[in-house]
Design a protein that fits this description.
With about 280 residues, the protein is mainly alpha-helical. The chain contains 9 helices and 4 strands, in the order H-H-H-H-H-E-E-H-H-E-E-H-H. The strands form 2 sheets. A two-stranded antiparallel ribbon has the order 1-2. Strand 1 and strand 2 form a beta hairpin. The chain is elongated and about 115 Å long. It starts with about 25 loop residues before the first helix and ends with a helix. The model has no long low-confidence stretch (mean pLDDT about 80).
Length: about 280
């Protein structure tokens, strides 16, 4: 049935046709009458423009609610006014209204990255027009995520303040020494400790100072084996206090070589068993 051939709704100024034959109202007004006992004025339907930009003047993100982007809408819910958002500091590049980085020399993340790469500063294009635009990093063909960079280079720059090819991120020439002087390992830029130090200190509940003291032990207390690197030092703790890891940190006794650590584990830290073994070896 052609809807245009149906009679119009009997409610004044309602242009919609009736829901079905032998009815006098459209579907919405009939629902109002059945549930509320009266007809109500329909709210006009307005289709939201997907290209609407946040009404904060220096923000170029897409508006999602109340004319604000998602970030500014969340700030608005905390009580921050739009005027306060407008009054915040902006990038030093003329015509750029983005918020500057904390350690970016007064530039936003986009213009700070251009300065790091030695490129001439250019205005930031609107994000809504960035479809398949390639990353600003030379020889990177990944599409732009935000601030003129792909997701990989953006995360790398925010974490390390450096930019280099993503395929070389984990090569040794870009690594830096571990934050503990007694450790000879290296770690990725932006991290304080190497992977083994981070894992062991968290597993055994040790502070950085306590763990550094253990690493300074030159020889095994049991067999006097001279440690050559960090991986040969095995942390020993009292299993009567903490039988599983992570431990509390208070029961850590020191570091041993692999053989002595396994030997104590075999006898379950029993002094009596060790005394019997000593008498056995003495004949």
């Amino acid at each position: 049935m052609n809807l245009n051939s149906l009679p119009k709704c009997s409610v004044q100024e309602c242009p919609d046709p009736i829901e079905r034959v032998k009815q006098t109202m459209c579907r919405t007004h009939r629902h109002h009458m059945e549930n509320f006992g009266e007809t109500r004025v329909k709210k006009p339907y307005t289709k939201r423009n997907p290209r609407d930009i946040c009404k904060v003047s220096w923000c170029e993100a897409k508006a999602v609610n109340l004319g604000l982007c998602r970030s500014h809408y969340n700030e608005r819910k905390t009580g921050l006014s739009v005027a306060a958002m407008e009054a915040r500091a902006v990038c030093n590049f003329g015509g750029c209204n983005r918020r500057p980085r904390i350690d970016g020399g007064g530039f936003c993340v986009f213009h700070d990255a251009q300065t790091t790469l030695g490129l001439s500063l250019t205005p930031l294009p609107l994000r809504v027009f960035w479809g398949g635009t390639p990353c600003m990093f030379p020889e990177c063909s990944n599409p732009v995520k935000t601030a003129g960079m792909c997701q990989g280079h953006l995360s790398l720059f925010r974490r390390t303040n450096e930019l280099f090819p993503l395929g070389m991120r984990y090569k040794r020439e870009h690594f830096i020494p571990c934050g503990l002087p007694a450790c000879e390992n290296t770690t990725q830029p932006g991290r304080e400790l190497c992977g083994p130090c981070t894992y062991r200190s968290s597993r055994y509940g040790l502070t950085a100072e306590r763990y550094e003291t253990l690493l300074a032990t030159p020889r095994c207390p049991g067999c006097h084996y001279e440690f050559k690197n960090t991986s040969e030092r095995h942390i020993d703790h009292d299993h009567s206090c903490c039988k599983e890891t992570p431990t509390c940190g208070e029961c850590t006794r020191g570091v041993l070589c692999s053989g002595c650590n396994v030997a104590l584990g075999r006898v379950e830290d029993s002094v009596m068993t060790l005394s019997r073994l000593i008498r056995y070896l003495g004949g």
